[in-house]
Design brief:
- The protein is α+β, with helices and mostly antiparallel strands.
- The protein has 14 helices and seven strands.
- α9 packs antiparallel against α10 and α12 packs antiparallel against α13.
- The longest helix is centred in the first third of the chain and has 34 residues.
- The radius of gyration is 23 Å and the shape is globular.
Length: 415
């Protein structure tokens, strides 16, 4: 009997080794973020990591690799968060700052203020800058004198924490500067790839702006994930009907981009590596255009794995790709683990995979599984974060998804 159980465990390990290791890595990050690991704990984790790896290889106790992965997650998250706090202390709130750095995104208007982020020279963090009527562009080298704002207070427990959102995205201070306090030292295009992607986004925005105002803000949400123009009542209706996810750039948008990449690669008669590189370039452009949000990063990584499997004739294991996407996202930013967008995106995808396993393997079953699975996967998180649980979304989502797909394709063709 013991040998039978042992064989079953070995088979399970061979099939799910990578997802289990990544899951242990994520649990390590969770533990570090919840317990505020200190230097002594990091040293102990590092020693335990070495011991588990040594015993795992020497004795063949492969379960210890999970412990090693857990320790790795603890150490990685601790190093990242401590580094952020250390750099954040250089920009105390309610103080006058003088910063020289590079504009890292395309400036946008927020009411009467022009908003953009700046990465100070030699820093690994960013500052959110608000100024008035000052023409700056992505890649410009600027010198800014301004006052760091006090952090916004979160009064209701469980409500959206704007400070935490900024910190997750490595923005450690918000600085207000007048027009004369922002000096463009050198106009530059920065990274050519990012500059090109932002220009593509601008061309899509210009095409959308030609539509009537009411239609334009909905199309902008579906194509670019830009919900800034939506009014409070409109957001509430979309949330209550369960179709707000259509206004977040994620798997559907990436899928259409991948199809366009395959079509263009076919017209150019590219071979296998040419097709894969075309897919990578297209999804990378979309990621930059939409601001590297967790749903887009998750979808893009999974799309590249799926495209590689299709091109090279290999089997695509969805859950393995999902766990790999989580690993790369958390490797880049461990704090994504507490990001609502990250959690919703991965929960929706897991719900889809589970639903597809119980529905008929045909077009109707797959379409229904994708829409219903996503809704069921995020139901608990939607109730927790937004106090919303709607049955109407289970009916409307499949219908609205078809219409949004056409809109997204037309929006992408507008480039």
């Amino acid at each position: 009997m013991w040998n039978s159980v042992k064989n079953q465990l070995i088979k399970m390990w061979q099939l799910w080794a990578l997802p289990m290791l990544i899951g242990a890595f994520g649990m390590g990050i969770l533990c570090a973020l919840l317990t505020n690991f200190h230097a002594a704990a990091m040293v102990i984790c590092a020693l335990f990591f070495v011991l588990c790896l040594a015993l795992g290889f020497w004795k063949g106790w492969y379960g210890l690799f999970l412990v090693a992965a857990f320790c790795t997650g603890c150490i990685w998250a601790s190093i990242d968060v401590e580094g952020l706090h250390r750099e954040a202390a250089l920009y105390p709130e309610d103080s006058v700052l003088q910063v020289q750095g590079v504009v890292t995104d395309a400036p946008v208007w927020d009411g009467n203020w022009l908003k953009f982020t700046v990465k100070p020279e030699g820093a690994g963090v960013k500052l959110l800058i608000y100024t008035q009527n000052m023409p700056v562009a992505y890649g410009d080298k600027v010198y800014i004198t301004g006052k760091a704002a006090k952090q916004k207070q979160t009064w209701n427990e469980g409500s959206f924490d704007y400070n935490k959102y900024l910190f997750t995205n490595k923005i450690v201070a918000t600085v207000f500067a007048s027009k004369n306090e922002v000096i463009v030292m050198e106009a530059s295009k920065g990274n050519p790839f990012i500059w090109f992607a932002l220009k593509l986004r601008e061309s899509v925005e210009n095409a959308i702006a030609m539509l009537p105002e009411q239609q334009a803000k909905f199309v902008a949400g579906m194509v670019l994930g830009d919900k800034a123009a939506l009014e409070g009542v409109e957001r509430q209706i979309l949330s209550q009907t369960g179709i707000m996810h259509l206004f977040t750039v994620s798997g559907g948008n990436v899928a259409y981009v991948v199809m366009l990449a395959f079509a263009l690669a076919g017209l150019c008669r590219f071979k296998r590596w040419g097709k894969l590189n075309m897919v990578i370039v297209f999804v990378a452009l979309l990621s930059v255009m939409t601001g590297f949000s967790p749903p887009v990063l998750r979808s893009s990584i999974m799309a590249v794995f799926a495209a590689a499997a299709l091109i090279f004739g290999e089997r695509n294991h969805g859950f393995t790709a999902l766990f790999l996407a989580a690993f790369f996202c958390l490797l880049w930013r461990p704090l994504f683990l507490f990001d609502a967008g990250f959690q919703l995106s991965f929960a929706a995808t897991a719900g889809i995979f589970f639903s597809l396993g119980f529905l008929p393997n045909n077009i109707f079953g797959k379409y229904l599984g994708i829409n219903l699975g996503a809704q069921l996967g995020v139901a608990a998180l939607m109730a927790y974060y937004f106090n919303i649980f709607t049955v109407v979304g289970l009916i409307l989502s499949p219908l609205a998804s078809a219409a949004s797909g056409i809109i997204v394709i037309l929006g992408l063709l507008a480039i």
